Amino acid sequence: MASTGSLDKHPQGARGKSDRDPTHAKFYGSVEEMPQGGGEGIWRVNGRKILVTGDTRIKEKYGAATVGSYVEVEGNFSGETFTVYKLEVKDGNRHKSRKEHNHIISGKIEAMPQDGYEGRWVVSGYMIEVNSATLIDESTAKASPGGEARIIGFRAKNIVNAFRIKITAMPQ
User: How far apart are CA 159 and CA 58, in angstroms?
Assistant: First the structure.
C-alpha cells in the first residue's frame, strides 16, 4: 500500500453499485484492527468486521490506512459478510464534525416496530435505534419493511442511534 495517492485495482464499472441496491451501505469510522501488513483480509471499523479484498479500492490521499485512521467505507452485504469496494482515508481535521454522526447507512428496511416508529429497526443488517428525537423524512416514500432508507447516526456498541432517516423508496 502506498502512503499517499490511491490504490485502485477495481476495473471501471465492476462494482455494480446502484442507488436501488438494498445490499449497499456506506459508513464512517475509525480503523480498530486490520491484518498484519494491512491490505486484504478482515478489518474492524467502529466495531464492525469488514472484508477488504484485492478488488477493494483504497484511497489514501490524507495518509496511509492504519489502525486509528478515520475512514469512509463503502460496500455490499452478502449474508453476514460486508465486502468493501471502496475504503477512503479521510482528513481527521476536516471530518471531526462527522465523528458525532459517524454512520451513514443506505439500504433495505428489514424490520421496524409494529406500532409506530420509535424502537428498534434493522436496515441492511444494522440495528437502528429510533427515538422521539429522530428526524424522519417521508417526503419520497412512507417507512415500511421492504422499503429503502438512508440513516445518519452514531454508533454505540452494536446499535446505531439514528439522528436522521430519509425514506428513499417504497417496497418493491
Answer: 26
